Amino acid sequence: MKQKWPGRLILFGIFLAGLLMLFAELSRIFMRKEGDGDLSILSSSYYHLEKNTLDVLCIGSSHAFTSFQPNVLWHEQGITSYVIGGPSQTFVTSYYMLKDALQYQKPKVVLLEGYYFRTYHAFASEERLHASIDGMRLGKVKKEMLDDELSDYSLKDRLEFYFPFLLYHSRWNELQTKDFYAKEWNKGSNINFEIDPQRDPGLDVEEADIPEMALDYFERIRTLCAENGIALAVYFSPFSDLDGEEREWYEETQGRNRKAEGYLRDRGIPLYYCQREMEDLDFAHDFEDYEHPNVWGAGKVTKYLGDRLASDFGLKGHKKEASFASWDRDYEEYRNYVELHSKE
Amino acid sequence: MLFNSIDFLLFFPAVCLAYFIMPRRLKTIWLLGCSYFFYMCWEAEYALLLLASTLITYLSGIGIARSSTEKRKKAVVALSFAINLGILFFFKYFGFAADLLEGFLGFFGLAFHKPAFDVLLPVGISFYTFQALSYTMDVYRGEVEPEKNFFKYALFVSFFPQLVAGPIERSKNLLHQVDEDHPFAWDRVRSGLLLMLYGYFQKVVLASYLAIVVDSAYDQWEQCTGYQLFWASVCFAFQIYCDFGGYSNIAVGAAEILGFRLMDNFNKPYFSVSVADFWRRWHISLTSWFRDYLYIPLGGNRKGRIRKWINCMTVFLLSGLWHGASLHFVAWGGLNGLYQIVSEWTAPLREGLCKKAGIRTEAFSHKLARVVCTFFLVDISWIFFRAQSVREGIGVLSRCLGLTGGEWLTWGDNLSKLGLEGGEKLNVLLLSMLILFIADLLSLKGIRFREWLKGQGLWFRWLLCYAAVAGILIFGIYGPEYDAQQFIYFQF
How many structural domains comprise chain A? Predict the structure, then answer.
């Protein structure tokens, strides 16, 4: 019997498309999810936001996603925001994450957390890179990023970054409900309820050098924002020195922050040095560990940043706008979650 | 480039796509180039050995055709065998032979320092050498005409789907197919893809899970109980079947997509009712190679019982050696040879006993008992195949039989000792084994699954394919190993 080519070809095409959809869905389910309490990665929820509805896009490492709470900012100011952050996320990764993110949102302000003015390498470790970028959609920017960050990797070794399912498929015996129905209300932030009392280590430190790589990619971020007509601001999340045990690291990091302060001032980029400027920060109560604020510390940092952003950039709230009703619902989820876990 | 690598999943569709759209006259050269590329992905310079083997056997074919006397023909055959087996010996057996000689001379107090050669075993050398030699022999016997076109012949030797792990094809089956036109055919491609899919299931899911059990026990066999080693050994029987059988199915399926028909290499071997039956169903291409090119030329069963047994033992010892240059492979082969001899020797006695005891040999229960007995006999030999040495093989076997190692069974952490802690992996393993059993049983009953599936509705076929792909993707063991511990967020 003569084969009917066009019909079969179309069917084969549909079959292949089905296979691709199956692969995409499996990838989504098997991906390690954010909000485990120990990790925050870019979730697909970013791509689910209605286009061009963000006022502020916060970006950076763990210092960003632990200290910045979009739900608090919404509740306080009615300003919409999202955090795109990954553990040990360098400025290199942040640059590409931002480039990808701007394809879907055009925020009024990009708020960069500045801990990674210490960017010496493109990424800290493969595991950290995975945690940062696995949620990123496959596309031109992701390819560009991997070509840059993994330039000495063979294509074969890069595949697990293009298709994280290759890494995560063996999670089948640890899947949970949240893998099928991802938590989306936290908008990239990590909420931690630990209290690890710290001391206030002060800011009396010498300036330290900023690596060339950090400045290179910071400039790329600045240019990217300028090209898109987006204002750029930087903030430094507060941290301590573990009762002096991490003093060297602390002085080096704060020293770099001090150096960056001048660098940013020269270029007219607003900087929010929370540790110096915030009056209500309580080192004994507001930290989950010596590096990161807990939910209460993050609440204070976010309120402070919200006030500054609103006044410096004239951001207006959207609380009375019906089209932003889902933000109220998400805040309720956040509030319930915080109340529930605070009692524990 | 392994079949279960990303490289092959990119390579194979590209080869097929170009193959089906290019003019017919270019197809042989294209497949030949692709086959050499496939081979060179391992160790590029060893392609020269493949080329040498091809050239020698190609010339041997022409030499035999031009030889006017039987003596000259035999000389050409001998030369082809000597050179090819010489290369095989050097790369695969030189170190082993030197070790044996060193040990032997050392026994008599004589010092022998073996020369140090740092050579890697060329992948697939045993397979393509045997395939190429079969051509020399077939031409000598007049079973095929000598091939004049070198490129066609080179493709026969190096055809990538079966180049590195068989099936070891015969020139009379494969060579003429190079001349055939293989246009694209939906049904054939679909059938080949389904076979490949099943092969991937066997290899990536089943063999890999079974390997967890086997490796967990065998890697620390001295700390394992007889019970644990017993189950690990049972698992190894299926691991090697799924590993090799799966690879063969992928090879046959890939060749089918390209329009080539390769021989089946496995035929439900664990449904065998005797060891002799098993060897008619296991690695058929190698067994038949030894039968046709060694056993029969040695006299087969035509020269009396004792000679037959000697021939049988010779074939199995060499078959063991073919699998690897180590005494434990020889022991594996020897044990299988011994089974055959003892089986034939005791056949009248067993038949007599059955008759006297009134056992109905045609009953299902009797056949089942024979299948089970055959499996365990074969599995005992597999212990020596899997072990790293004869000593380890004896150690494992004696523990399995409860002769050494203390208590045969202890309650407690048997699953974790076998790498299956938590039990989830055990569930996947059992379900996969059930699928394998059903597939082999259907085949045994003459039900051709791929033909049956062709007659089903589109939605059902697609659903089954999607389920199979999803199952392999999820449960297969491939890619970088995910370790949640590595991802624990202890330091930002």
Answer: 1
pLDDT tens-place string over residues B299-320: 888 888 889 999 999 999 999 9
pLDDT surpasses 50 at A276: yes
Domain, as residue range, for A296: 31-343
Report the gap between the CA of A321 and the closest CA in chain B (Å): 38
A8 within a domain of the structure (yes/no): no
Distance CA B172, CA B182 (A): 18
**Chain A residues 157-176 with CB within 8 Å of chain B:** 159-160, 165-174
In this predicted complex, what is the ipTM? 0.77
Q: pLDDT tens across A221-252, in order?
A: 999 999 999 999 999 999 999 888 889 999 99
Check if B283 is active-site: no
Euclidean distance between the first and the last CA atom of chain A, given in angstroms as a whole number: 71
Q: Which of residues 55-74 of A touch B (CB under 8 A)?
A: 61-63, 66
* Residue B256 neighbours by CB under 8 Å, 6+ apart: B188, B191, B192, B195, B262
Q: Which among A8, A63, A167 is the nearest to B186, CB-wise?
A: A8
Chain A contact probe: residue of B459, B488, B492 with most A CBs at under 10 A: B492
Q: Mind listing the pLDDT tens digit for each residue in B421-470?
A: 777 888 999 999 999 999 999 999 999 898 889 889 989 999 999 999 99
Let me know if A76 is exposed, middle or buried by CB neighbors in 10 A (0-12, 13-18, 19+).
middle
Across the interface, do A169 and B476 touch by the CB < 8 Å criterion?
A: yes
**Percentage with pLDDT > 70 across chain A:** 95
Phi, psi of B57 (to 5 degrees): -75, -30
In a domain, A10, yes or no: no
